[in-house]
Amino acid sequence: MAGCAASIALARKGHRVTLIEREPTPRHKVCGEFLSGEALEDLHALGIDVASLGAVPIDHVRLAAARRAAEAPLPFPAASLTRKALDTALIAEALAVGVNVECGRSVQALQRSTNDVWQATLDDGTTREAATVFLATGKHDLRGHSRPADPQRWVAFKMYFRLSPGQTAELSRASELMLYPGGYGGIQPVEDGIANLCCVVQHKHLPSGGDRWENFLAKMQRDCPHLAMRLASAEPLLAKPIAITHIPYGFIRRTTDEGLYCIGDQAAVIPSFTGDGISIALHTARCAVAAYVAGQPAPVFQAKLRSAMLAQMRLAEIAADGLNNSFARAVLPFCLRVWPGVMRVTARLTRVAQQGVVAPEALVN
Ligand SMILES: Cc1cc2nc3c(=O)[nH]c(=O)nc-3n(C[C@H](O)[C@H](O)[C@H](O)COP(=O)(O)OP(=O)(O)OC[C@H]3O[C@@H](n4cnc5c(N)ncnc54)[C@H](O)[C@@H]3O)c2cc1C
Fold this sequence. Notes:
The structure is a single chain. The chain is an alpha+beta fold. It has helices spanning 2-12, 37-45, 83-96, 165-171, 212-223, 225-231, 277-293, 298-323, 326-338, 341-349, 352-355, 360-364, and strands spanning 18-21, 34-35, 56-65, 68-80, 100-103, 107-113, 117-122, 127-130, 133-135, 154-162, 174-180, 183-190, 194-202, 235-236, 242-245, 260-262. The strands form four sheets. Strands 2, 3, 4, 10, 11, 12, 13, 14 and 15 form a nine-stranded mixed beta sheet that branches. A three-stranded antiparallel beta sheet has the order 6-7-8, with no helix packed on it. A hairpin with a 2-residue loop joins strand 3 (56-65) and strand 4 (68-80). The two termini are 26 Å apart. The protein binds flavin-adenine dinucleotide. Flavin-adenine dinucleotide (FAD) binds at residues 1-3, 20-23, 29-34, 39, 106-107, 136-140, 142, 156, 198, 200, 247, 264-265, 272, 275-279, 281. The site of flavin-adenine dinucleotide has 35 residues, from helix 1, strand 1, strand 13 and helix 7.
């Protein structure tokens, strides 16, 4: 996401760009696939028309915990679209604007050679050199450029389901957040009438044994009957869920080397319930390109980005801790029914890209 966005913006400004992507073709990724208003604006500016790709408009958020659920309208326009469709469109746009796209090539090492040139060594042993690199490997760390450990040992799963016609109608245009001990999950419609269930849980709360996903899915449904209702008679559409581990929530990169702009999840990792990671990926890409074009050194850019994002990131972390508290799980849906406005306020406050990260020009100046 961030890598494509940066390369499209750079190519449009006349720079020679090579995009190295290890997957031969876009594939499903662990992601709730919620596109916030800011993400939609950035995608539009990149020439991506999400409506024509089949994106589903989302105008409500529903919170379910234990036996209660509460609903509130979203305070901004939003949509959902599979990452496979979105990544395919972004790669096509990158090719269209003249980016040299090398798919199916994985970067194994990235080092600065003596003459101030970065050298990437690919999996076939060949190298690529450039004075400037935008590091956008998302959830995957490159050796020598790692992010800190994830002490909570988060595990995330994604699965697509075809819900029953009744549940499909109930879910329509809503993003539902479900709370359970040790984590939370979201279910929402994506294109072609299917639903995305994406959930995170701390490793110590994951049932042990060989059938981890099946056991975890059963446990989530026991802990959150709202999910059991949604999944009644649902058909799973992937042979097994996609899973990832090591998600350093709350990370914001402090510093970087000369000529190495870190963007997307390599710059900052916001708790997933905010549905803001894609918008941060797009925003950090846009800011990094503006910084590069203005001649702002990468270490200066990275430090400014960090201070601009810090307050909202910490707020999102506090909110995430709250969601993970058993008392909060018991009373939150009740409170939200009494005062639905709090959901709108929380949604606004945790929008990092809108609130804390100012326009690229301001980061550069
Ligand atoms: C459980 C969960 C749910 C989420 N739900 C949402 C949501 O609903 N809405 C939202 O906005 N955000 C969500 N996010 C966050 C969002 O998915 C990320 O913030 C976003 O994808 C980050 O974009 P990126 O460009 O940094 O990384 P990615 O989109 O992950 O892209 C990184 C790319 O780098 C490639 N790559 C990796 N290593 C190499 C290598 N060595 N060589 C070459 N290529 C490489 C990968 O193949 C990949 O294509 C969620 C995250 C999680 C964990």
